[in-house]
Design brief:
The complex is a heterodimer of chains A (303) and B (417). Chain A is α/β, with parallel strands linked by helices. Chain A is built from eleven helices and eight strands. Chain A has a four-stranded parallel beta sheet, with helices on one face. In chain A, strands 6-5-7-8 form a four-stranded parallel beta sheet, with helices on both faces. In chain B, helix 1 runs antiparallel to helix 2. Chain B is globular. The chains are: A alpha/beta (303), B mainly beta (417).
Chain lengths: 303, 417
C-alpha cells in the first residue's frame, strides 16, 4: 500500500508542473518558431517567449531595452544563428549582462549547430554579393526535418539544465516528432502537387522550404540577398518566369507587395503571401499549423 | 559508401578475432550473429542517410575564426559643403574626409571585452577615439568599463557622429560637449534594473577630466590634482514600450568637473583659471515602427534640452584678480528637436530645429532649422543631403548646403537603437 502511495506521489510530482515559477526554466528565443518548438518540448517545465514576431523580418528586429530585461532573467537564449540576428543580438546580449546567455554560457544555444546547413558560400565573398550569410542560409526552420533536430537539441539542453525533467522532455520531444510525422503524412499528396513546379521567391528564405517541398525556385525578386529589386532585374525576372512557366511568387508578409504584384501582372502569376514563421498570420499559432498552411496554400496556388 | 566499407571491415576483423578465440562449435553461430549485426548497422546508416532525417549528423563545422582574430572594421566619413557664401567647414574645404575610424573589437578573455576605435582625420591626425575594456561577467546586472568612451550624457552624444541621422551634431551638443561629441577617460559603471516594471539604467562615470585638455590654456595646477577636480557624471534612462510598434525613452543626465577657463592675459605661462562647470540635461526619444511593414515605414521624434552652469567657484592663480578672469560667468541653455520619417525602404526625410545660447558668442541666441534627405543604398552605406538656415541673433543668418557619404567595411555591426 505504502509502495503504491509512494509511486503515485512520484508520478504526480513528475507529471505536475513545478509549483514555483522560479523552478521553471526561462527560455527566450529569437523567433516564434524556436519559441513554439521550445514550448512543445519544455511543456510546463519552462516559460518561453520570443523576441521577434512571426510577421516581422527577423533580420531587422530592434534591440529594444525591454528585450534586455527578458534576457537578463533568461536561463536559455536560443537563436537561429548563422548571422541571422547579427544586426541586433549583440546589443541585447551585452545589455542583458547575463553570463548564462553569453557565448560559452550554459544557456547560450546556437540552434544552427544542430542543422545541416545549405547555401554555404565557397570562395571569396564580400558585400558586393549583397547581404550574404557567410556561414550559410539561416532560414532552416521551414523544413520539418530541421524542426525535429531543433526539438532534439532542446531536449538535450533542457535536460542538461534541468535533469529532473529529463523524462518529461524526452516524452514531449517524441510526441512532437510523432505529431509532425503524422502531419507530414497528411500533406504528402500536396507535396506531390508542388514537386518540380517552378516558382519565384522574394528572398533566399524559402530555400529550405523548397528542398523539403520540391518546389523549383527559378528566380528571386531580390537581385542579391537583402538588395531591393531593380527595374533591370525585374525585367530579366519577367523573362525567366515566362520562359520557365513560373506562375507563383512566394513572399513574406513584410516585403513590398506592389513590386511583386507588378511582376505578377506582367506574367499572369499569383502573388502568394506565406507566413514564414509561427504567428506570421492570424491563427497560425504553432509550427505544425505553419507548415500545414504553407504547404496547402502553395499546392493550391500551383494546381 | 566510406561508412559501409569501414563498418564491413570492422565486422570482418571482429569476426576473425572471435573465431580465433572460440571453439569451432560456436564459431559459425557467432560469425552469423556478427554478420547480421553488421548488416543491421549498415541498413540503419543507409536508412538515416536516405531519409536525411532528424538522425542525420548535424553540421560539423570547425571554428569560424580559428586564429581568434578580432573583428576589424573601418568607417569612412566624407563631407561636402556647397554653401553659397563659401565653405562653412573649419578647414574651409568644399569636400573632405572628415574622419576615418578604424575599429578593433574582440573578447579579451572570459571576463573582458576590448573595443578600440582609432580616428584618422586631416585636422587631428591619428587619435584614440575610444579604447575601453568592458567587464562582461559582473553580477547584479552590472557593467563596468575602463578606458576612453563616449560620455553617457544625453542621447545624441552616445551615438558616433557618422551614425547620426544628420550631418553634424545638434548645436547644443556641439557647443556644450564638443563638435564631435564628448569622450572621457575613466571608469564607467552601469546597472540595469526594473523595480517599477519598466526598463531603467543608471550609468555613473568618474573620469580624468571632462573632455580633452585645451592645448592653449595652462592653469597653475592640473584640473585633476584634487579628487574634487575629476569629472563625474550620472545618467538615468527610462524606457517604456507604448505598444508593439511604438516606444518612448525619457532620460536625464548631469556631469560636473573643473575646466581650464581663459584669463585676459598670461603671467609666467599661466593663462587659465580652474573653474567648475556643471551641465544637466534631459532627453526624450519616441519611436514608431510597425513590425510587419517596419522595413518601409518608421518615425522618430527626439529632443534634448541642456543647461550649462558656470557659476561655480573659480580658483584664480596668483597674482590674478577676479577682473582678469575671461571665462564664462553666466549659465547657458540649449535644445533641439529632431524628427525623421521613413518614406521608402531606403529613403528618410528629416528636420531639426536648434536653439542654443552660444557660449562662443557670450550667450547670444543661435537658432537653426534644417531639412535632411537620408538615403541608404544598403545597411553599409549612407548618403545625406542637408540644407540649413542658421542665425545668430543680431548677426544675420547663413544658409548651408551639406552633403555626407559614410560607409562601413568589415563585419556586420549591430544597428544602433
Amino acid at each position: 500500500m505504502s509502495r503504491t502511495i509512494s509511486l503515485s506521489l512520484l508520478l504526480a510530482a513528475t507529471a505536475l508542473p513545478p509549483s514555483r515559477a522560479e523552478a521553471q526554466l526561462r527560455v527566450v528565443t529569437s523567433t516564434t518558431d524556436l519559441n513554439d518548438i521550445a514550448r512543445q518540448v519544455g511543456g510546463a517545465r519552462i516559460v518561453s517567449r520570443s523576441i521577434g514576431q512571426g510577421y516581422q523580418d527577423p533580420h531587422f528586429i530592434e534591440a529594444k531595452p525591454s528585450f534586455v530585461l527578458e534576457l537578463a532573467k533568461a536561463d536559455v537564449w536560443a537563436f537561429v544563428g548563422l548571422d541571422l540576428e547579427i544586426g541586433w543580438m549583440p546589443l541585447l546580449i551585452d545589455g542583458a549582462r547575463n553570463p548564462k546567455i553569453r557565448q560559452g554560457g550554459s544557456g547560450y544555444l546556437d540552434v544552427s549547430k544542430a542543422i545541416p546547413v545549405i547555401d554555404i558560400p565557397s570562395g571569396n565573398i564580400d558585400r558586393s554579393q549583397g547581404d550574404v550569410h557567410p556561414l550559410g542560409n539561416p532560414h532552416y526552420w521551414l523544413d520539418p526535418d530541421n524542426a525535429k533536430r531543433i526539438a532534439k537539441l532542446y531536449e538535450s539542453k533542457f535536460t542538461e539544465l534541468d535533469p529532473a525533467g529529463a523524462s518529461v522532455y524526452a516524452a514531449n520531444e517524441e510526441s512532437f516528432e510523432r505529431r509532425l510525422e503524422a502531419a507530414e503524412k497528411s500533406w504528402a499528396p500536396e507535396l506531390a502537387t508542388i514537386k518540380g513546379k517552378p516558382v519565384v521567391a522574394w528572398h533566399t528564405s524559402w530555400r529550405y522550404f523548397a528542398e523539403y517541398t520540391g518546389m523549383n525556385i527559378v528566380g528571386f525578386m531580390e537581385p542579391k540577398p537583402g538588395v531591393p529589386p531593380s527595374p533591370s532585374h525585374l525585367a530579366g525576372l519577367i523573362l525567366t518566369m515566362k520562359r520557365t512557366g513560373a506562375k507563383v511568387i512566394v513572399m513574406e508578409p513584410f516585403y513590398d507587395r506592389k513590386t511583386s504584384q507588378f511582376v505578377a501582372s506582367k506574367t499572369g502569376a499569383t502573388v502568394l503571401i506565406l507566413p514564414p514563421s509561427v504567428g506570421g498570420k492570424k491563427g497560425i499559432d504553432d509550427y505544425i499549423n505553419l507548415m500545414k498552411y504553407d504547404v496547402s496554400q502553395l499546392a493550391a496556388a500551383l494546381r | 559508401m566510406r561508412t559501409l566499407i569501414i563498418v564491413m571491415t570492422v565486422a570482418v576483423l571482429g569476426t576473425r578475432q572471435t573465431s580465433a578465440q572460440r571453439p569451432d562449435s560456436t564459431r559459425a553461430d557467432s560469425a552469423a550473429r556478427a554478420r547480421a549485426d553488421s548488416i543491421r548497422l549498415v541498413r540503419e546508416l543507409e536508412a538515416m542517410t536516405a531519409r536525411g532525417g532528424a538522425g542525420q549528423a548535424p553540421r560539423q563545422a570547425g571554428a569560424s575564426n580559428p586564429r581568434m582574430l578580432p573583428d576589424i572594421s573601418a568607417v569612412g566619413d566624407l563631407v561636402g559643403d556647397l554653401s553659397p557664401k563659401g565653405s562653412t567647414q573649419e578647414d574651409g574645404s568644399r569636400f573632405g574626409v572628415r574622419e576615418l575610424e578604424l575599429a578593433v573589437q574582440a573578447a579579451v578573455d572570459p571576463y573582458f571585452r576590448g573595443d578600440l576605435f582609432l580616428g584618422f582625420s586631416d585636422a587631428e591626425g591619428v587619435h584614440v577615439e575610444q579604447a575601453f575594456l568592458t567587464a562582461t561577467a559582473l553580477p547584479w546586472r552590472l557593467e563596468a568599463r575602463l578606458g576612453r568612451f563616449l560620455a553617457p550624457f544625453g542621447k545624441q552624444n552616445t551615438t558616433h557622429r557618422h551614425d547620426l541621422h544628420t550631418v553634424e551634431h545638434s548645436y547644443v551638443v556641439q557647443r556644450f560637449l564638443g563638435e564631435e561629441g564628448l569622450k572621457n577617460t575613466g571608469v564607467y559603471l552601469a546597472r540595469v534594473f526594473s523595480p517599477l516594471g519598466f526598463y531603467q539604467e543608471l550609468i555613473l562615470t568618474v573620469v580624468d577630466r571632462i573632455g580633452e585638455a585645451p592645448e592653449d590654456l595652462v592653469a597653475e595646477e592640473p584640473a585633476n590634482k584634487k579628487l574634487s577636480g575629476l569629472g563625474y557624471s550620472a545618467r538615468l534612462r527610462n524606457y517604456w514600450d507604448l505598444s508593439e510598434a511604438s516606444n518612448l525613452e525619457i532620460s536625464a543626465s548631469a556631469m560636473t568637473g573643473r575646466k581650464e577657463q581663459p584669463m585676459a592675459f598670461g603671467i609666467n605661462d599661466i593663462n587659465a583659471a580652474l573653474a567648475r562647470q556643471t551641465t544637466a540635461g534631459a532627453d526624450f526619444t519616441f519611436r514608431w515602427r510597425p513590425l510587419e511593414q517596419g522595413l518601409y515605414r518608421s518615425f522618430i521624434l527626439q529632443g534634448e534640452v541642456m543647461k550649462q552652469f558656470n557659476h561655480g567657484s573659480v580658483t584664480l592663480p596668483e597674482p590674478f584678480v577676479p577682473d582678469d578672469y575671461a571665462g564664462p560667468t553666466r549659465d547657458f541653455s540649449g535644445a533641439y528637436l529632431f524628427a525623421r520619417y521613413q518614406v521608402s525602404r531606403r529613403t528618410f526625410l528629416g528636420g531639426r530645429y536648434d536653439w542654443v545660447q552660444d557660449p562662443e558668442a557670450d550667450g547670444v541666441s543661435l537658432t537653426a532649422g534644417s531639412g535632411v534627405l537620408e538615403f541608404f543604398p544598403s545597411e553599409f552605406s549612407k548618403l545625406i543631403a542637408s540644407v540649413e538656415r542658421r542665425s545668430l541673433k543680431g548677426f544675420g543668418g547663413t544658409t548651408r548646403f551639406l552633403l555626407q557619404a559614410s560607409f562601413a567595411v568589415g563585419p556586420h555591426k549591430p544597428h544602433p537603437f
